[in-house]
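Standup notes
- DV: blocked on the single-chain target, sequence here:
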Amino acid sequence: MPAAVAAPGDANVVEDLFGFLRVLSDGSIVRSPDDPEFSPITFPSDHPSVQWRDAVYDKANNLRVRMYKPSARAKPVGGKLPVLVHFHGGGFCLGSCTWGNVHSFCLRLSTEAGAVVLSAGYRLAPEHRLPAALHDAEGFLKWLSDQSVNAAAADGWLAEAADFGSVFVTGDSAGGTLAHHLAVRAGSATPKRGEGDVDPITIKGYVLLMPFFGGVDRSKSEAVEFPLAELPFVNLALLDQFWRLSLPVGATRDHPIANPFGPDSPGLDSVEFPPVLVVSGGTDILRDRNVDYAERLAALGKPVKVIEFGGQPHGFFTLDPWSETTGELIRLVALFVVDSCVVEPKTA
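- DV (later): unblocked, structure below
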C-alpha cells in the first residue's frame, strides 16, 4: 500500500468507501488499518466449545485462512466433521477473515452447525481486480485438497477433525459470488484420468448467502428509490461503486463474474451442480437477483433451494452474528449439510 495520506474530503480522492478505502487521483490506494464500525471488538472473539487458529495457505500473496473446529467434547465419538469453506463479503473491495463480525459468525457457525469452518481470505480490489479473488478461491481449494492427501504438508490440527469427503463451500455476498463460480468450474471440469479415481476432497454442496450479482439492467429491488434519510447501508450507489472498483477496467456489470446470466456468460445447462442453497433477505436490495438466480437454476433442473428471511437486510448475520435470526439461519445451513451428505450421487 502506498505511503499516502488522504483526509476526508481531500480533492485528490476520486473514490471513497467509508474512509476504509480511498483511491487518489494519481492512482494511489489508501486503506485504513482499522476495522469498520459494523465490526466492533465487542463481538465475542472466543467460544468455550470452539477452538480456532490461523494458517497461511498462499505464502506468495500472504493469504490466510482462519480455521475453527468444535472442541473434542463437542464432536461425535471417533467421528470427523463436515467442512464448511467460507468466503467473506465486502464487494470484492473490503473485508477480512479476521474482522470481528466475520470471526464471530464463524465461531457460531462452527459450534452450532457442528462443523469445521475454514474462513479463507483473498486478494481485494482495486489493487487486485477480478478475477484475482476467484483465482485465490480456487487456490484455497487446491490447498485444502493437498491437506487431505499430503501427510508431510498436512496441518494435523485440521486433519484430525475434518471429513474431506464432506466439504461445502459457503460465501457471504461477494463470497457467495465466488461460491457460484467455483461450482460452475467444478461442474464443468472434465475428469482427469490417471490421477486416481477418487477426488481428495468431495464438495457436497454450496451455500450462497445473499450473493453479490449484478447486471446492466436493474432488477425491481434495485430500482426502489429511498428517501435519503431511509437509504439502506447497502444501496445501489455502493453496489455500483464496488463493481466499478473490482471488475476489469472497462467492463460493465454484465461481465460474466458479475452477471451469471449475462450476454457473455457461459451457459449453465450442462453444468453438474451438487445441491445449492441460496439465502435472500426480504429488504435486501439484491433480493430479486438472488431469487431470480435460484429460479433460473431450478428451471434448468439444478438441485437448488432458496430460503428468504423476510424483513432482513443484506448481511444480517454478520451485522448481528448472535441474533435469534442468525441462529435460525445456521440451523437451516446445518440441516442442508446433513441432507446433502445423504444424497445418493448420480450414476452415469
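- Follow-up: The chain is about 30% helix and 20% strand.
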